[in-house]
């Protein structure tokens, strides 16, 4: 299942041409700030959970980065999780998904 | 006097608002993201509810922590009873309410929020109501509970089920009579008349909600500051760039005022003439002031990045505004809208003045 999602992720990446550059170092700092404070308003500032679930690497262990990217981009219908497409670009959302998998700091 | 939360450093400032100065800086309060405060009836102690389940009793006179416990894993807010003897905390994890002796912080009652659907819920919208009662809502179970602690040993709980999908925050009117929960999962709000709990929960404001297209929400609005002016209340719309005007006699919608972004706090100046509104990301660098008589925007201010909270001085001649990303608390004159002073603060969020001690539901 995870494998499939990952493969799907790879395909999607090529379709969208995600070879697009990683966010710049300055932008990464802004995104980190957004993650802690604006995602943090629902997920807790330490990402240990609030109205939304915890987003720490241990909790997300079985969730592929591609899934995280899809959730961040599209949101989760019928829940408070909003879509971030249009506010963040694809490379930025993929970078955030990666940060969630790796853990901050 | 008052307390300013510094959300990133687990610290607070104790301040006074006669000459707008900092008196003390207190550290070691844990994770204060989304922290809130209630005050003891004599205004001496602040009970600080931290995100990490910490409950800190802060001595404002001495600028020191008087007692501190960690009572849950993940908490969201609290309330103090009418007589000031009990402090209740609402928890996300483990979902439920815990009630403590206000002086010793010893546990008096533990109420796991297990709904009739057997789901253990996050608890939101916890408030105090007259008569040693607390009222709160269950996010996953769609219920409202009243717990009555007249008999401390045997708290009595009345449960209202199927009040509407995903209550996300609630408030009690300043007279302590109506408890109103905002619903995320459907339109409308759930209203409970605490003078007549036997009449059950009814739905009001059917037009209130995210609407057909289900607008996304980037920060949950806070209902706590439900701004009442005369017979009308001004309420943050959810998912829309609007403030909703509600008729308090009919509980119907009077009008909607288009504003700059999705409102988070809609706060009435104590005399009710103006309401001040702040907004969710990405519009959170702006404040707008509405005239409650003409229902028009009369001022747009740009304090800076991430305006999180506003608190009026007790009689409303000034308002303190926390601007998180500028590391500032800005103080405005509410008559000419001029900025009077700026105080440095480390990532400030909530500002709480001690006159809240004498208000039901705060």
Can you put this structure into words, describing what you see?
Chain A has 105 residues and is mainly α. Chain A has a single domain (23-102), classed as Cytochrome c-like domain (Cytochrome Bc1 Complex, Chain D, domain 2), CATH 1.10.760.10. Chain A has 4 helices and no strands. The radius of gyration of chain A is 13 Å and the shape is globular. The termini of chain A are far apart. Chain B is an all-beta fold. Chain B has strands spanning 2-6, 11-16, 21-26, 36-39, 45-49, 54-59, 64-70, 74-80, 86-93, 95-101, 107-112, 123-129, 133-138, 143-148, 156-160, 167-172, 178-183, 189-193, 201-204, 227-229, 232-236, 242-247, 252-258, 263-268, 274-279, 287-291, 296-301, 307-312, 318-323, 328-333, 339-344, 348-353. Chain B has a 4-stranded antiparallel β-sheet, with no helix packed on it. Chain B has a 4-stranded antiparallel β-sheet with strand order 4-5-6-7, with no helix packed on it. The radius of gyration of chain B is 19 Å and the shape is globular. Chain B starts with a strand and ends in a 9-residue tail after the last strand. The mean pLDDT of chain B is 93. The chains are: A mainly alpha (105), B mainly beta (362). At the A-B interface, helix 2 of A face loops of B.
List keywords for this structure.
heterodimer, A: 105 residues, mainly alpha, Cytochrome Bc1 Complex, Chain D, domain 2, 4 helices, disordered N terminus, B: 362 residues, mainly beta, 4-stranded antiparallel β-sheet, 32 strands, globular
SSE diagram, text form:
The complex is a heterodimer of chains A (105) and B (362).
Chain A: H1 2-16, H2 25-43, H3 65-74, H4 90-102
Chain B: E1 2-6, E2 11-16, E3 21-26, E4 36-39, E5 45-49, E6 54-59, E7 64-70, E8 74-80, E9 86-93, E10 95-101, E11 107-112, E12 123-129, E13 133-138, E14 143-148, E15 156-160, E16 167-172, E17 178-183, E18 189-193, E19 201-204, E20 227-229, E21 232-236, E22 242-247, E23 252-258, E24 263-268, E25 274-279, E26 287-291, E27 296-301, E28 307-312, E29 318-323, E30 328-333, E31 339-344, E32 348-353
Antiparallel strand pairs in B: 1-2, 1-32, 2-3, 4-5, 5-6, 6-7, 8-9, 9-10, 10-11, 12-13, 13-14, 14-15, 16-17, 17-18, 18-19, 20-21, 21-22, 22-23, 24-25, 25-26, 26-27, 28-29, 29-30, 30-31
